[in-house]
Amino acid sequence: MKEFFQKLLKIDRRWIFLITGVAIVIPFFFFIGLPIKATREVRALYDAVEALKPGDVVFYAPEYDPATIPEVQPMAHAFLRQVFRKNVRVVATGLFQLGVALAEQDLTLMAKEMGKKYGEDYVFLGYKPYPEQVILNMGEDFRKSFPTDYYGNDVNALPMMRGLKNYSDTKMIVSMTAVSGADYWIRSAHGRYNIPLALGVTAVMATDYYTYYQSGQLFALMGGLKGAAEYEQMVGIKGKAAKATLRMDIQSFAHLAIIILVILGNLAYFATREKK
Amino acid sequence: MPGMVSLTLAGFLTLGIMSFVYKDNPIYKFCESIFIGVSAGYYFVLIFYQSLLPQLTDKIGLTGALTDSALAYYRQSGSLASVQWFNLIAAVLGMMMLMRLLPKIGWISRWPLAFVIGSIAGLKLIGELQTNIMTQIQKSILPLWAPQYVDGSLSLAASIGQSLTNIVLVGGILTGVIYFFFSKEHKGVFGGAARVGIWFLMVTFGAAFGLTVMSRMSLLIARIDFLLRDWLHLLG
User: Fold this and answer.
1) Average of pLDDT values for A63-87?
2) Which residue in the set A68, A128, A251 is minimally distant from B217, CB to CB?
3) Which member of A76, A102, A208, B8 has the greatest number of CB atoms within 10 A?
4) Closest approach of chain B CAs to the CA of A233, in angstroms?
5) What residue ranges in chain B does DSSP mark as E strands?
6) CA A215 to chain CA mean position, Å
């Protein structure tokens, strides 16, 4: 047995890659549909949106690039489907330079799917450099940073923007982010203007932002593919559109494989240490 | 047809990058170089069209919609508009920053750098203090016994649960801070508290590592999804 463990400790790392690869590929062909239970921090956003009335406005800040599409885009799509279904209006910016086109594409796609009209149901203000200053400016007046929208339209000419001056005219700020822009929203939007703030972040970022959820600086927090899958379930997204839900099944098998490998690695370590 | 070509190209490039898990090889190097080149080019174009043109040259009046009105203003008044002055100052500071590339006059770049550091520090100081220090400390001061009421009556189970949460949180903060206090030797009760602090840190690192694994797995799954579904059409 000890010899087996000794061999295990010297195993070529490429075997680990192969095992992980197999654990990921096989579940693609056998969808089980493992249960996904909504956690309190994810449900908080869903409930807050459900409590909104038709015509209310939410401020939406998507800030992710192509590299983080798998984790953040399913959250963004689920959130937009829910707000548009509730006839809640959306004013959005794209303050991450590499993600502006994605932000615009997502908004347009979801609005088209839900039959929403630009300028009346949603507005995309676009990008300006130095996000923290832009966030601070918008707390006074959206027009300070964005006299025109992403498409060059005069913001005052857009029906939705009439009577919409700054964050205080919106019910909440929701940022789906894969960058440190999340800190700017916490510091300069919630910290300065005390607007309810929710974040959707990549899993790798989640531990950093639980601190803010714990302290109440965030009223909701979605982390990674798991958070996205929970949100999809609550919104009721089914079939191929529920990308996070489909992939969470596969992710669970990958995690299982990793857990088994970690246990084996530890067993091997302790077994061989005894011999020394 | 163009879609098919781009899909096939993306498929082969994905496999090329993945081939690194076997070992470093020329195909991987080739794909990596393409990725870096395309990324750099894409970023340059974005900066040029999203920052430089609309935020500088358009506002100075060299390009874009302002050109005609800027010229008209200049012809009428014989001077530049205030918005142009501000942006000209920014342009000069930007040029000064580039002096870093010339070793003999590289010191000039310190002036715009001082401006950036000063303004950003001033801008962030209050927000940082309020968000990451004051609020975090305030929300960490919790009662160790936290009675919870359900329908007006005391719930013992909920109270114990909340109190344990508070004890763990407060205990974690105190012992974690003690671990990083190096002015006193970690011995006796103090040393014991520091050891407990290490455990809290280990749990934190474990959680962070677990979520990092989850994050990277999500990206890998998406890539394999692309290969199997979009490229090879093996999935429905």
Assistant:
1) 96
2) A251
3) A76
4) 18
5) 148-150, 153-155
6) 20
User: CB contact, 8 Å: A8 with chain B?
Assistant: no
Q: Are B197 and B177 in contact (CB under 8 A)?
A: yes
* Tokens encoding B147: 């009675």
Distance CA B43, CA A98 (A): 7
Residues on chain B touching A250 (C-beta within 8 angstroms): 221
Q: Give pLDDT tens digits for A203-215.
A: 999 999 999 999 9
Residues of B with Cβ-Cβ distance to A225 under 8 angstroms: 214, 218, 221
Q: Which parts of A86-202 fold into alpha helices (H)?
A: 100-113, 131-140, 142-145, 181-184, 191-193
Q: Structural domain boundaries of chain A?
A: 2-30+251-275, 40-237
In this prediction, residue B69 carries a pLDDT of 58
Cross-chain residue pair A187–B127, CB shorter than 8 Å: yes
Rounded Cα gap, residues A127 and A130, in angstroms: 10
What are the tokens at B99? 């002096």
Reported as a single tens digit per residue, the pLDDT across B5-19 is 999 999 999 999 999
* Nearest-by-CA chain A residue for B65: A152
Distance between CA atoms of residues A89 and A57, nearest Å: 5
ipTM of the complex: 0.91
Percent of chain A whose pLDDT exceeds 70: 99
CATH number at A40-237: 3.40.50
B208·A258 Cβ contact <8 A: no
Q: Which pLDDT does position B14 carry in this prediction? A: 96
Chain A nearest C-alpha distance from B22 (Å): 6
Take residue A220 and report the two structure tokens written for it: 């909701």
Query: Distance between CA atoms of A168 and A189, rounded to whole angstroms?
Result: 10
Burial classification of residue B103, based on how many CB atoms lie within 10 Å of its CB (0-12 exposed, 13-18 middle, 19 or more buried): exposed
A89 bridge partner residues: A57
